[in-house]
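Why predict the complex rather than its parts? Because the way molecules touch one another can change local conformation, and only a joint prediction can capture that. The input here totals 538 residues.
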Amino acid sequence: MSPDPLLLSLNTATVRKQWTLAQAIEGCARHGIRGIAPWRDKLAEMGVKKAAKAIQANGLTVTGLCRGGFFIAKDWLDDNRRAIEEAHALRAQCLVLVVGGLPAGSKDLIGAREQVTDCMSKILPEARKAGIPLAIEPLHPMQAAERACINTLEQALDVCDALGDGIGVAVDVYHVWWDPKLEQQIRRAGKKRVLAYHICDWLVPTRDLLNDRGMMGDGVIDLARIRSWVEGAGYSGFHEVEIFSELDWWQRDPDEVLKTCKARFLKAS
Amino acid sequence: MSPDPLLLSLNTATVRKQWTLAQAIEGCARHGIRGIAPWRDKLAEMGVKKAAKAIQANGLTVTGLCRGGFFIAKDWLDDNRRAIEEAHALRAQCLVLVVGGLPAGSKDLIGAREQVTDCMSKILPEARKAGIPLAIEPLHPMQAAERACINTLEQALDVCDALGDGIGVAVDVYHVWWDPKLEQQIRRAGKKRVLAYHICDWLVPTRDLLNDRGMMGDGVIDLARIRSWVEGAGYSGFHEVEIFSELDWWQRDPDEVLKTCKARFLKAS
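Output of the joint prediction:
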């Protein structure tokens, strides 16, 4: 069975080379896409108030704000506080956390993991107060050094277990599709802790470790199967398309990209 | 404490662009490297008998034969039988299994995993008879589609548990360094099932998903820590340097590569 077309959301990274946030909001409205997940650099360009107003005027749901985290940065505390405020202003369903990798010059992955957990425990009370769930996004192990030292759903859920309410996970198929424990851990996460569901595809071959994601249906991820697990766990929220694609989709006409996202969402997700 | 210099082994992939197997055997002897792990394409070029003779004449230990596996190939059974025979002829300490990824056109990762487990159960009795331990090498999740659908040590050990004696794992730091359960699973594997230990480094940035491995010390893997876990589990065998490096080490003078392997083994492993 195809997913509900009303549950499609656009992560604006998918058209970040072509469009401003204002253009992406208009694009979603024009194509009948009901969810949007903005990135904070584009949000800052547009201005939070103006963006919140445009998003509401177009009746869009903000399925996540990308991103908080990067707890190895010097200004992590202020930056994450601002991110929580922005998420609140946008009425975002969650703040997505890309936790950061190894500090420069360090090889201490265990230490980095302890550090990011500690930082999350420090911002969690403020996120709870603002009513913004924090969504840890486990990133593919190939991004462990540079972007996120949380690399499996199991590891992310262990952190959630330790930190209590108000924190869950963003399940991005690109990062977790390979995991032999994926079904088990999605079940463990359950309805309460699957805060976001991101889709795209894994290309064969993959030409770049960061920016060579594929459109749904163009790769080898069994999206229907993973969706059945996520829905089986009770998730009934949006399906957010997030495609970093230097060599392909960022080169195309953004209206064509959105049309393709819509079509593939129904046909191949 | 530095590792024992007598425990260095050269996986010949490290100089595969520069040297034949005969040259690699001579190179090891010349540089005082006591272990070698040949690849079967080069072994076929040289001839198994001639290679076995040269290896014995130089007093080298074959720390593994690369590779069996690729159970999705049509001729997997014959090919793996031949691999076991060759490993026996070389008195190899194990046959390394790179199990293969998804069959062409398939997205069924779970099915692929069942298939490779089934294939391993079929060759295991012959491997036992030949006295050749089979070493499952879990490959980095970024190689799940194309090279191996066994991607964590935990998953590999679950397979070992199911199949019984005569099968264990090859722990290659490049593939497993990111794993939050690495220490725990190395302990679980124990002396009996850690059949090989492969070293190199993870470069930041990594420019290619397959052939951009680093020399020990040039990347972010905490090699001393992982070595302490492996030794703590009771492993006292060779440390095999395996570096696929299109852009760097395959471009260099192979004698320089071997000298660097020796120096870095003592200084940074």
